[in-house]
Specification:
The complex is a heterodimer of chains A (about 350) and B (about 190). Chain A is of the alpha+beta class. Chain A is about 30% helix and about 30% strand. Chain A has ten helices and 13 strands. In chain A, a hairpin with a 3-residue loop joins strand 2 and strand 3. Chain B is mostly helical. In chain B, about 70% of the residues lie in helices and about 0% in strands. Chain B contains eight helices and no strands. In chain B, helix 3 crosses helix 4 and helix 6 crosses helix 8. Chain B is elongated. In chain B, about 45% of the residues are buried. The chains are: A alpha+beta (about 350), B mainly alpha (about 190). At the A-B interface, helix 1, helix 2 and helix 6 of A face helix 2, helix 3, helix 4, helix 5 and helix 6 of B.
Chain lengths: ~350, ~190
């Protein structure tokens, strides 16, 4: 007789064909039909041209110029070279004239942002450690410290100060391969609330600790949804790093959110998001600075990295988290997902302060 | 099998990439649906994951399995989306009704048997339900489920084992009742 444990392969015991069929049928009913493959491709294909599969758009830009230069002799040898040369001469003169006003760049804003988004998924540096300050309407200032290591490791600590310089709240996030933690320390009550997000928690439920920190993907969300147009503003230097400066301008015709009914028109105008300015590190494409303006040009929020180190050795312990002994661990009841077979299995919060 | 397609796609061949999309789109979308439990959000995450795949394809080492690499991109996108949606600045109040997740009542007509199975699934823990859905809906391998859920392989195995034991017990207890009901229908 086989002695089975959880470590053996008893999970592979087949279900009866009837039960397996019902299970698959149930999930398909609950989650709904699959998207048509043609429809999936139709959504993706238009965006592929703008974001070619290139390890480095910077170098593809250079190779594009090399390719054009390589084809130059054949262009001159063509029987239609005279009209072409005339047209090119005009273009050259126009280009020279424009060059007086703007420094030409081999990269477009779209290419830079596509590269930044790609780098966010697969960083070019093995690790980084940065300190930053954010000014936000919710707090006078927020001090941020962030550690990140390739492979999905991240730690972020945020301290919110009021106008008098007193700490309002301290927040943190730790992510590693197996779990995520978010915590919030309230100095008024001297209590730490911890939310564990990971294999035991559905991703959509991570709402206990509200995080006003705006990440690159948040900033580029409107751009990704084609609600904003990106414009390259030129190179710059910030904290000793060469940067690309990009301006994101809302595309009001497509995505401007309607003013909420009953909201004061003046308030609506000043709260309406306007342009965003981004400063990206040219070498690593890490976001070093951003400014968010309202539609009337008022600065709403800003973020500035004050120091950054790349490829630094970060101890693995940085990416683990042990809640304080007196912390309140929130095990949020799993909400019944609408349209999902996941039903509620309420678990009471485990109050470790007791 | 995937290697030739990846080789061509890495060179910029969109037709080859399309074959990859068609081959794995169901897996990608179903995984996102299980993780996010929101059809519209899952479609967005899946679409973004495919765009990430296209952008990063040249960094993919051929010879390695493509599906786990792709699933990592799906997980990243689901996490980003979930995080973004938890931000107060996201105008969730402006989401139109057709963007809301499918309600249980409004979904496809559910038979009595499915309702019973739904009730049986509801007795499982949330993580057991997720593992079962990833196994039998997204059709993921156990190692892939471990990757997606961030749990250890042994944990995934034990969760799935316990879930299947419970479901089998429920199913076996239901059979005599079903047979009785069928017999009564035949008599009538």
């Amino acid at each position: 007789m086989t002695n089975r444990t959880n470590q053996d392969f008893s999970h592979t015991d087949p279900l009866s064909p009837q039960l397996e069929q019902r299970l698959r049928g149930h999930f398909q009913q609950s989650y709904g039909p699959d998207s048509q493959q043609d429809a999936v491709w139709a959504r993706i294909a238009p965006q592929l041209d703008a974001q070619p599969s290139s390890a480095s758009p910077r170098w593809s830009g250079v190779s594009g110029w090399v390719s054009r230069l390589r084809n130059w002799p054949s262009t001159l040898a063509s029987p239609r070279s005279i009209p072409r040369l005339s047209g090119l001469t005009v273009l050259l003169l126009l280009g020279l004239a424009l060059g007086v006003w703007a420094y030409p760049t081999p990269l477009s804003a779209q290419q830079i942002l596509a590269q930044a988004q790609a780098v966010h998924a697969t960083p070019v540096v093995t690790s980084y450690h940065l300190q930053a300050t954010q000014h936000d309407p919710k707090a006078a200032s927020i001090q941020i410290e962030e550690w990140a290591m390739r492979g999905g490791y991240q730690r972020e600590e945020r301290t919110f100060y009021n106008a008098q310089g007193a700490i309002i709240v301290t927040q943190g996030t730790v992510r590693n391969l197996s779990q995520s933690w978010e915590w919030e320390y309230d100095p008024a009550t001297r209590q730490t609330q911890v939310v564990r997000i990971g294999s035991d928690q559905p991703l959509m439920d991570s709402k206990e600790v509200q995080n006003p920190i705006v990440s690159l993907e948040d900033l580029l969300d409107g751009y990704s949804r084609k609600c904003q147009t990106a414009q390259y503003q030129g190179e710059g230097t910030f904290i000793g790093r060469t940067t690309y400066q990009i301006e994101l301008v809302p595309n009001e015709q497509q995505c401007s959110p309607a003013a909420k009914p009953g909201l004061d028109p003046e308030r609506s105008r000043t709260e309406q998001p306007g342009r965003r300015l981004l400063w990206l590190d040219q070498q690593t494409l890490v976001l070093l600075k951003w400014e968010q303006y309202s539609s009337d040009g008022t600065l709403q929020a800003s973020y500035e990295v004050t120091s950054v180190e790349y490829d630094v050795a970060i101890p693995e312990s940085t990416f683990t988290y042990e809640p304080p002994a007196d912390a309140t661990i929130i095990t949020k009841p799993v909400e019944p997902a609408q349209g999902s077979p996941r039903e509620a299995n309420p678990a009471e919060p485990q109050d470790r302060t007791k | 099998m995937d290697d030739d397609l990846i080789l061509h796609a890495q060179a910029g061949d969109q037709a080859a990439f399309r074959v990859l999309v068609e081959r794995y789109s169901t897996t990608v979308e179903r995984t996102a649906r299980v993780l996010l439990a929101d059809r519209m959000a899952a479609e967005e995450a899946a679409q973004d994951a495919w765009l990430d795949a296209w952008r990063n394809l040249r960094r993919f080492e051929r010879g390695r399995p493509f599906r786990p690499w792709l699933l990592k991109l799906v997980i990243n996108r689901c996490r980003m989306l979930a995080r973004r949606r938890s931000l107060p600045s996201i105008p969730l109040d402006q989401i139109s009704a057709d963007q809301l997740p499918i309600s249980a009542a409004g979904s496809t007509a559910t038979t009595a048997l499915d309702a019973d199975l739904g009730a049986a699934l509801a007795t499982l823990t949330a993580e057991q339900q997720r593992v079962v859905a990833l196994r039998f809906f997204a059709e993921l391998e156990l190692a892939e489920i471990a990757l997606v859920t961030g749990a250890r392989l042994g944990t995934v195995k034990s969760r799935l084992h316990r879930a299947l034991v419970a479901l089998r017990a429920w199913f076996e207890s239901e059979q005599p009742m079903l047979q009785m009901a069928t017999r009564q229908e035949n008599i009538l």
